[in-house]
Write a structure and sequence with these properties.
Length: about 120
């Protein structure tokens, strides 16, 4: 989700009015930052194919269902987590920036003075 939110922020034409020439470099830097910060914990799980494909091949090569049950079924985290994170980041990006794009600003306090 964090990486996808960065890509959306860098490539959104309403956010950056002209094509930003540094966008590919910044996307690459964000990939590097995400992999360096979360890679040791999750075994860089920003791409489900990097985890699920080798698990399926290992299961077919003779290890069986054990590759899916190791570490309390951890394979769900790198397989489903990035997809759920991207969907949440897309909705979050749209919900946070749509009022700004349309010129509407949410009031910080209502008429009664309550936040």
């Amino acid at each position: 989700g964090l990486f996808f939110m960065t890509v959306l922020a860098l490539t959104d034409t309403a956010n950056v009015p002209q094509q930003q020439p540094w966008a590919p470099v910044l996307v690459g830097a964000s990939v590097c930052a995400v992999l360096m910060s979360f890679g040791g914990l999750t075994g860089p799980s920003i791409n489900p194919a990097r985890d699920l494909g080798p698990r399926i091949l290992t299961a077919l090569a003779g290890w069986g269902a054990d590759v899916f049950t190791v570490r309390s079924y951890y394979f769900w985290v790198p397989s489903v987590g990035p997809v759920v994170g991207m969907v949440a980041a897309g909705f979050g990006h749209d919900l946070l920036l749509r009022p700004v794009r349309e010129g509407e600003r949410a009031p910080l306090v209502d008429e009664a003075g309550m936040p």
